[in-house]
Each structure stands twice: as structure tokens, then as C-alpha cells.
Amino acid sequence: MVRIKDIATKCGVSIASVSKALSGNSDLNPLTAEHIREVAKKMGYVPNSSARLLKTNRSYNIGVLFVDDTSSGLGHEYFSSILNSIKEEAESNGYDITFISHRFKNNSLTFYEHAKYRNVDGVIIASVDFKDKEVIELVESEIPTVTIDYEFNGKTSVVSDNVQGEADIVEYLVKMGHRKIAFIKGDDTSVTQKRLTSFYRSCKDNGIEVKEEYIKDGRYHLPNISGVITRELLALDDKPTVIIYPDDYSLLGGITEIEKHGLKIPDDISIVGYDGIKLSRLLRPIITTYVQNSTEIGRKSAKKLIELIETPKTALPETIFVKGYLQEGKTVKDINK
Amino acid sequence: MVRIKDIATKCGVSIASVSKALSGNSDLNPLTAEHIREVAKKMGYVPNSSARLLKTNRSYNIGVLFVDDTSSGLGHEYFSSILNSIKEEAESNGYDITFISHRFKNNSLTFYEHAKYRNVDGVIIASVDFKDKEVIELVESEIPTVTIDYEFNGKTSVVSDNVQGEADIVEYLVKMGHRKIAFIKGDDTSVTQKRLTSFYRSCKDNGIEVKEEYIKDGRYHLPNISGVITRELLALDDKPTVIIYPDDYSLLGGITEIEKHGLKIPDDISIVGYDGIKLSRLLRPIITTYVQNSTEIGRKSAKKLIELIETPKTALPETIFVKGYLQEGKTVKDINK
DNA sequence: CTGAAAGCGCTAACAT
DNA sequence: ATGTTAGCGCTTTCAG
After folding, report:
1. Is the pLDDT of residue B263 over 90?
2. Are B103 and A80 a contacting pair at CB < 8 A?
3. Cβ(A333)–Cβ(A270) under 8 Å?
4. B167 and which of A92, A278, B202, B246 could share a cystine (Cβ 3.0–4.6 Å)?
């Protein structure tokens, strides 16, 4: 390993001068500096981030907190896509990404402790139980954080605009002549709450009375559950003309069930998803769904966190809404005619 | 921030004693040690991994190298699943995960330099161009590495058993009475090479003469490309009875095209995928595909890398094959009858 | 313009 | 059983 000291010896200067030459921002003789840099390069010098951190208290490392639960976290296209864009944005700003988690070996650390242990400059939190004590501890700590799809009072967050999204869906359905709209909820989270509230409000705005039997408790990402609920909805005397699923993935369970009943989509019943997974455009019929802009969500989160880290004075906590758009597929029938 | 020194002061002992008490493996008075540990806990002490690293040269941090190319890397279910299991296995052994990449801000580092800069104890390499100079530099460096789905001579790798996989597919197709088998290649990589070679060999073993017009250059993960190729195959005078696609995702492009021709799967033509994405079980018909054991691949990679790191003397370089299995869906017709 | 020196938080060899 | 001390590689003040 080549150290600054080695370069200093080779160049016959002090280690301080080498450090200055390498960082660039000092009043060294430009020629000396250039020479030092050349030698450093020739010797294959790579700085040691840990040693640097010890002095500067900056790691240029961002922690990312995802749960590892089955079917959530990285298994979810929405989140793996967010992670990917966080990574890209961070890297292009000179930051690396380290996962924050509980750790098991000997000492298990809380999320906050883990973040301190790794000296991350900040943490992006996504896809976790936001009521978790440890998550709250982390958010309320001195470490800058950005939460995704959940707002903590006075903290920074980036959220997919679920209110607008659900409203857009209802608006579209109404335009297509639907008034019997079933809504399958996802797990009980704030995202689900927002979508549901927006659903109710949009229905009201359009003079639609929501039948309680059309509102069902479902789960995200579990096609089988959606299948069962779909069966219940199809068994109603007064069937809905359209079913809104909590996500595209669980919608697939609905399709299977609907086809089992010998019904045609969208002729016999219409369906709508949420997320806009890549597959929604590949399947036939193309799925009508609300496409969340996961790339933008990841990018904004990283950007905002870095701002929080680098200019804490001027960066004010805020909630950033990221809009998506309705993908008009072929799974909703126009029943006006 | 609470430092060892603070605890020492509080307890009226030396910092050495605190360090010893915390690490446990030393001949301290058990009572003193216990007391120190209690105080440390009460004070909210969290060790500083960077300071520790500086002394010990161990970071307990594993680098993971994925390319960021569109449609590859994390966007690929196969790889995000591998990443997830790497993460789990690593964490349960007390290691964290940091992404290795080029970095852009000021100084761009090679992969090897980046790994050194972050002091990772080892690197897992997946989904990259293995001919890349930088990748080779990293693999041939002093840093322990495990490559996924690519073997470097004398190095450790974990590979999905593509030879067996393709052979299993052919075997199954033959059993189902197929002899006109089309094969769409993925991008030109060693994985593709292995599958193709295995395909030829298996056909030969079964007395099947492979028509060159049945072998097509395709791409991984690009349904449109598969669609175009499917059209070409369907236009042949002597059509194949079954098409093997490079992956499940690109197979979907094939389905779309086939349906456009008014053909039924599997009655008019059979299709087979590769990967076994979750969706392959959700769609109707269920896709016949070779399911790669991505979880096991990730787990084994991490396990093996940690072995390489912790017991370099006894860990010998090897290629670990991970088998998958054929998922018999409903997209292959039995044409024996 | 350059260098000496202190010290970030920790471990471990070596004293006591 | 406990403490002293050196030093990991680096940055940064301060002195020259």
C-alpha cells in the first residue's frame, strides 16, 4: 500500500505538502504540486477513506435502509428501481452506498448505531415500518435522513404522489363511464391511507356513492390474496364494473381469478393496477395502471440528502412530491356507449 | 460522540482496559469488564469502524460490483435477488455491503482503486463485462474476489449451472416429442456460450439434427428483439415446434408476437424460458422455464468470499455450481400423441 | 511557499 | 490484572 508518506519520501518533501498537493486547495507552488501528483499517480496511490474520515468526519458514504422482508425491499421492482437511481445519483456526486440493517454476528446494532458505526453522512430510508422505534430513533437523531413515501413532521421526505395518482385513476374511470368501482387496499400504511382517502374524495367529487362492500382489505404484492378478494367481488349481487388493485403484481392474481370465471377483460370486467412495472407494458392486454416515477424518486432522495449533508444551513426540511402518470392500457372498457 | 476514552474516564480505568473489556478476549477481571461494558452501554457507546480499521486492516465490509447499464444490474430480477441474498448472508456474518463502481465527482477511480479506497475486505462481482480491463485488474489483485457466472482461471466463482439447465430443457422437450427446436441466444457472453454448447450437445445426444436457421442471435431482457426473431421463426417454411428463449422476460415479447399471428400457446407452438422469475408462475399459462436458484447463488457467493477473507490459507479457489430445476408450466405441448 | 506536529478513535504489544 | 505507549493514514493549524 502506498501512503502519503511514501510519496513524500520519494519527492523529498513533507507529508503536509503531499496532502496539500493532492487536495489541490492550498498555496503550494503549482510546479511542486504537479510533480507530487505525477509521482503519486505513478506510484499508484489511492487515498484511504477511513483515515481521511477520522480527521474530517466525512465519509462520503450514504446509508440506505431497506427492510429485508419477503416480498418487500429489493424483491419489489419499485424499490429496486429506486435503489438503482439512488446509487447513480449518489455516485455521480462522489458518494458511495452502504446498506444499513440490523447486524447479527456478535453485537446487534440498532439502525442508528449501525449508521454511526459506519460513519455514514446520511441515510435514505425506504420500505420499512415507519412506526418502528428504531426507525424513529434514526430519523430523530443528528444524522441527516430522507424518508421515502412517509413524512415525519419537520423532516425531509420524498413521496410518490399517491393522492394525485388515485384521483387520476378515479377521474379516468369516471370518464370511461364507470360508477361501480371496487377498491382493494394494500397493507395498512400511510400510503394506503392516502390512496384510500383520495379514492373516497374523488368519488364524492364525481357524485359517486361508494358501496362499502366494494372496499376490501388486501395486501401488496400478494396475487393470491387479490385472487380471493376478486372472487368475493365477483360473487356480489351488484358486481362492480371495475376493480382497482393495490399494485400491478397483485392485479395478476386478479386476472387469473377473473379468467377462471370465464370472464373477459375488459369486456366483462375492467381492472386497474398501480406502479407501472415494466411488465405492465409487455402483457396483453397492456395493463391500465398508475406509473410511479421510481427513478425520479430515487434521484430526488439522493440529491436532497446530499444537500442536507453539504449545506445543512440552507437546506430546509420539506416533502417533495413526485408525480407519476396514468398509463392507459387495454384493461378498462369504455362503457359510455 | 462517546469514545473509549470517555468510558475510561468515567470508569477510572485506562483506555486499554476499556478496549479489552469491549472486545472480551483478554484477561481482565470479569467484574471490571462487566462494569465497563455496562457503563459503555449506558453511555450509548458505538465503536467507530474506521478507527478500528486503521489498526486492524479489516473493514468487515464487502464490496459488490454490478454494472449500472440499462436493463442489466439491479433492474434484473435475477440480480436483485442475488444481491438480496448476498446482503442477508453477509449481514448475518457481521459484514456490510458497499457498492463498488466508477465514481465521477472529481477523481474517477478504477474498480480496484475504489475497493482499496473503501478498504473492503473482498468483492463480489456480478453482471459485468468480464473482459473489462478494470474487472480483470480487480480479480487479479490482492483483494479476495468471487465472481458470479464467470470463471477466471484459478479464482473462485459461483455459477448457475447453465450446462445442466439447458440440457434439462432439451431433455424435457424431447420427452414431450419435440425435435424441431429453435434456440434464441442471449448476448454474447460465456453464459450464452455454455447454454448454446449444451444445447447442441444435448440435441446430438438425442439424435436431433439442429437446423442452423433455428439458431438465432437474440438479446437478454429485450422482449421486442425476441418478438422480431419469433416472427422470423414463424415465417420459416419448416417451422420449429418449440422456441427456447434466452430468458422469461424476453419470452414475453415472443408471446405477444405469437398471439399477433393468431396462434395458440402451446397448441400451435410451444415456448420455454429461462430464469424462473416470480411472474413465470403468475401468468396463465404458467411458463415452462428453467428456474435459476438465485438465492442460493447469492448466499454461496457471500459465504465463500467470507471464507476467503477469514481463512485464506485453507480456502481454495473453486468453481461452485448451483443447480436450478425445470419448472413444468403449460407452455410446452406434448406432441407425442 | 513549505514543514512540524498534533490528533481523529482505536488496538495491541509490551510493561508493570 | 491493568496501564503505557506507539501508531494505523490522513488533514490542518501554526510556525517558519
Report:
1. yes
2. no
3. yes
4. B202
**Judging by DSSP bridges, how do beta strands B242-244 and A242-244 pair with one another?**
unpaired
Which of B67, B282, B299 has the highest number of chain A CBs within 10 A, making it the mutation to test binding with A?
Answer: B282
Q: Which of residues 275-314 of B touch strand D (CB under 7 A)?
A: none
What pLDDT does residue B69 have? 64
Predicted confidence (pLDDT) per residue in A9-47, tens digit: 999 999 999 999 999 888 889 999 999 999 999 999 999
More confidently predicted of A198 and B106: A198
Contact A117 B46 (CB under 8 A): yes
**Residues B98, A98: C-beta atoms closer than 8 Å:** yes
Residue with cell 439434427: B209
C-alpha to C-alpha distance for B48 and A115, rounded to whole angstroms: 10
Structural domains in chain B, sorted by start: 4-47 (1.10.260.40), 61-160+295-323 (3.40.50.2300), 162-292 (3.40.50.2300)
Q: Which of A68, A74, A93 sits opposite B105 (nearest CB)?
A: A93
Query: Binning pLDDT at 50, 70 and 90, where does residue B262 land?
Result: very high
**Stated in angstroms, how far is B313 CA from C5 C1'?**
41
The Å distance, CA of B12 to C1' of D9, is 30
Q: How confident is the model at residue B284 (pLDDT cuts 50, 70, 90)?
A: confident
What pLDDT does residue A266 have?
95
Look up the pTM and report it.
Answer: 0.94
* H or E stretch covering A274: strand A270-275
Q: Which positions ≥6 away from B129 have C-beta within 8 Å? A: B67, B135
* Cβ-based neighbours of A157, under 8 Å, separated by 6 or more: A146, A147, A148, A149, A150, A151, A319, A320
Please give the angle made by the CA atoms of A307, A313 and A316, to the nearest 5 degrees: 65
- The protein footprint on chain C, as nucleotides within 7 A of a CB, is 1-5, 7-13
Whether the CB-CB separation of A326 and A168 falls below 8 Å is answered with yes
